[in-house]
Structure formats: C-alpha cells, structure tokens
Specification:
This protein is of the alpha+beta class. The chain has one domain: Trna Endonuclease, Chain: A, domain 1, CATH 3.40.1350. The protein contains 3 helices and 5 strands; from the N terminus they run αβββαββα. Strand 2 and strand 3 form a beta hairpin.
Length: about 130
C-alpha cells in the first residue's frame, strides 16, 4: 500500500517538473532522494546550479522550508534554491508560490541582469 502523503508529494513534484519542462527548461526532472544527503526534489538540468524543493502541505512552515532549502543547496552543490509551494485552489504551477531568501533572489537577479549599471529612465511630471 502506498503512503497517501508520499503519493500526493510525488504528484506535486511531477506536475512541477512538467511545468518547468514546458516553460523553458526541457531537461527539468525529479531527482531521487539520497538518504540524509537530500539534494532537493527537482533539477532544471545538469549544469543548472539551482535546487528546487516542492511542498504540498496544508500548513506552510516557511522558516522550516528555508532551513531545509539551505541544507539541500549545500548537498546538491548548487548556488541557489527555491521552494515551490502549492497554492490552494489551483493546479497551475505557474500560480504556486516561490519561496527563497533575499540573498538567493538577489544572486539570481544579478546573474539575470549582468549590467553593473542600469540606465535611469527619467519620468516626466504629469
């Protein structure tokens, strides 16, 4: 007999991996747990240094999720991580919550926008 919670978690991870595959990450996939050296639930593909943990729980425990994410980033030898939390009332992974720390978000944003100085756009007074 399959553990109901495990089945729900697996379905959430699978749905999340499929969403990433159809939204720019064709090599996204679930990864297997490695005992006490858990490296997260998903990878975007070999060489992409982002760890993804997927959560589908009634009670959201952000501090616990961040602590787990930080440990899994180390285990996965990743640079960044994110926790994808299922949002009640929708099956659209794009509408789920993404939880991270400001430090990790800043690291991602700096990599995405590599220019050290951005042009300031002056807005006209109306």
């Amino acid at each position: 007999m399959v553990n109901r919670s495990k089945k729900i978690g697996t379905e959430h991870e699978t749905r999340t991996a499929r969403w990433f595959k159809t939204h720019g990450w064709p090599f996204a996939r679930r990864i297997t747990q490695k005992g006490n050296r858990d490296e997260g639930d998903l990878t975007l593909g070999d060489g992409i240094p982002i760890m993804i943990e997927a959560k589908n729980e009634k009670e959201v425990a952000m501090a616990e999720y961040i602590k787990e994410m930080e440990a899994q980033i180390v285990n996965a030898v990743a640079e960044n991580g994110v926790v994808v939390i299922k949002r009640r009332g929708t099956q659209d992974v794009g509408e789920y919550y993404a939880l991270s720390t400001v430090r990790h978000w800043n690291n991602l944003a700096r990599r995405a926008y590599k220019t050290p100085k951005r042009r300031i756009v002056k807005r006209s007074a109306q």
